[in-house]
Amino acid sequence: MRNFEYFTSTRVIFGKDTHLKIGTVLKKQNCSKVLIHYGSHSAVSSGLIDEIRSSLDEAGISYVTLGGVVPNPRLSKVREGIELCRKEQVDFLLAVGGGSVIDSCKAIGYGLANPDTDVWNFFLRTETPKACLPVGVILTIAASGSEMSGSCVITNEEGWLKRSSARNDLCRPRFAILNPRLTYTLPQYQTESGCVDILMHTMERYFVNIETMEITDSISESLMQTVIYNSRILMKEADNYTARAEIMWAGSLSHNGLTGCGTGGGDWACHQLEHELGGTYDVAHGAGLAALWGSWARYVYDANPERFAQFAVNIFDIPCSTDFNKTALAGIEAMEDYFRSIQMPTSLHELGLDLTEKEIHDLAFKCSFEDTRTIGVFKQLNMKDMEKIYLAAR
């Protein structure tokens, strides 16, 4: 197992109607003007933004609003937010939404707190942020775990490059308000795509080719089992509060560093491969991960079939064979069967993408940063490997 540091500074306020306390929560942050940042019009039409406004009015906190964040959040919206916040002298950022809105807020926070640097440089990783304007979250989508993480992902429309910032505790939200009821109205596809994202944040850290800690493995396996069980419930009962609550808390725990303790940080190849799909074709992140995972797993499992066999036995109760390869492949197939059971794609075609070999080559070229980097640690992948995985996923 590897040495590790574990840190999370985010205050979690969990439960029914907790978002109505936002005025009181923000008052403790000693802020004078807040940006309420959100995504689609549904945040307005549902009455959620009005409830937040009322709470802030009651607390005597000034605010401005900026909506329009889309999945795979855009750099242009980040720049718009930076300009608005400078003009309005905003000193706190409130994300009302899921991972896209939270990541957009974090990027705005970086841009505001580092005025002499172009914010995109932090995503190219040519420069490191020295500060970030404080961020808080009212979560409406259980998926990304960005409400407790120190990372964010932004898409630059120029070249459709989807890039993540380096992990940095500066952008960790000060607080996250988690009310499972706010996720009731999500479309089923978005709910289940979010469940895949939660699983993948755990699995990226789980599938490493080193000795791991038994306690970390147990936490990860329990989290995965919880998400699988409750995601199936939500296929039939969209307003099941208990299932929504389990999924929401699992999403936060999956990406706050807990499941990476002792694993060396994780593999993250699937995420890197999916980022090119999301950036280029604007697909839902979790669905894109589901479409790629089986092809990635079959390509790399022989680097440590025993690890995949452990996954098969402990997650899907597959009998352990003396042939680890056989058990590993059965576990991969079981995971794909699970994806199908929640109506998630297991190929690019099912994702709605019928890509040519040229288009796949271009994805691998972008993912490898023009053939200058490798990805993954379970098995290190070069550009040719990436291309083969994309082809296998067709």
UniProtKB/TrEMBL annotation:
> Which stretches make up the Alcohol dehydrogenase iron-type/glycerol dehydrogenase GldA domain?
10-180
A GO term, aspect molecular function: butanol dehydrogenase (NAD+) activity
Highest taxon of source: Bacteria
Coiled-coil region(s) at which residues?
none
Q: Which SUPFAM superfamilies match?
A: Dehydroquinate synthase-like
Enzyme Commission number:
1.1.1.-
- Report domain Fe-containing alcohol dehydrogenase-like C-terminal positions: 194-393
GO cellular component terms listed in the entry, alphabetical order: cytosol
What Pfam families does this protein map onto? ADH_Fe_C, Fe-ADH
Concerning Gene3D superfamilies, the annotation shows: 3.40.50.1970, Dehydroquinate synthase-like - alpha domain
Key words, A-Z = Oxidoreductase
Q: Which CDD domains match?
A: BDH
Q: Which PANTHER family match?
A: ALCOHOL DEHYDROGENASE YQHD
Name of the protein this chain belongs to: NADH-dependent butanol dehydrogenase A
- Organism (species): Blautia luti
Gene label: bdhA
